[in-house]
Structures are given as C-alpha cells and as structure tokens.
Amino acid sequence: VRVVESGGGPVQAGGSVRLSCAISGYIVSRYCMGWFRQVPGKEREVIGAIDGNGRITYSDSVKGRFTISTDNALNSLNLQMNSLNAEDTAMYYCAASIRGCAGDAATSWGQGTQVTFSS
Fold first, then answer.
1. Which residues pair with 48 in a beta bridge?
2. CA-to-CA distance for 79 and 88, rounded, in angstroms?
3. Which has the closest alpha carbon to 79: 71, 87, 69, 89?
4. DSSP 8-state code for residue 84
C-alpha cells in the first residue's frame, strides 16, 4: 500500500490550492478515504472523508470552502481548498481505509504535504 500526497505550498489570503493523493493498494471507490491536517502541538483534525458509496462528510471548520473528490481513473483522492486563511496552515495528510469512515483509525497514511498561509 502506498499513499502519497502532493500539491501543498504557500497560499495567500482568500487563495486556493488543490491537494492530490495517489493511492496504490486500495481502490479509492471501494474504501473510505479521507483528509486530515495537523498543526504542531495540536491534535490531528479531521477535514472530511468519502465512503465507498460516494457519501462525503466535512468538518464544520471547512464546510463550504473545501471539496473532497476522487478520480477513479487515476485512483486518487483530491482536496480542493478555497477561501484559505491563516488557520488553514497545517500539514495535510491523506488516509486510506478509515474504519467506520469516522475518526482517524485509518490503515494507511501518507507522509503529508505542507500548506502555509502567507500574508
């Protein structure tokens, strides 16, 4: 199993960024996949997840600004992030096969990609 995030970098106020997660070993359309983020010294935060039926859930902190999607042809998970602000600065992680499609009990994690707010 391999989970690799990409697409992070510096972002400006109100800007957008798209993260991608290439997954091997799981078929993204059949398992629960999700995005998380973590700031040093704080607990890992759930951003959202998509289950094997295509149902998507989001945390209140990103609802309306972030969009999770899958690309079945590429077997990848994507995170479109809009209207970014300083509180979105974090290391962003992709996870595959999340137990119960809730929380952070995932089988496989990526190494993370950093998104940093720049004023």
1. 35, 58
2. 13
3. 69
4. -
How does pLDDT run across 1-29, given as a tens digit for each residue?
A: 899 999 999 999 899 999 999 999 999 99
Q: Which of the four pLDDT bands, split at 50, 70 and 90, describes residue 77?
A: very high
Tokens of 26: 């799981």
| CA distance linking residue 27 with residue 104, whole number of Å | 19
C-alpha dist (Å) from residue 73 to 15, 19, 29, 32:
28, 17, 10, 17
Name the one residue in this structure whose structure tokens are 């690309």: 71
Report how far Cα 5 is from the mean position of its chain's Cα atoms. Answer: 9
User: Which tens digits make up the pLDDT trace of 80-107?
Assistant: 999 999 999 999 999 999 988 888 899 9
The token duo for 66 is 């972030």
Give the contacts of 44 (CB within 8 A, at least 6 positions apart): 36, 37, 38, 93, 104
Handedness of CA 78, 109, 23, 90 (dihedral sign): positive
Q: Running DSSP on this structure, what letter comes out for residue 29? A: T
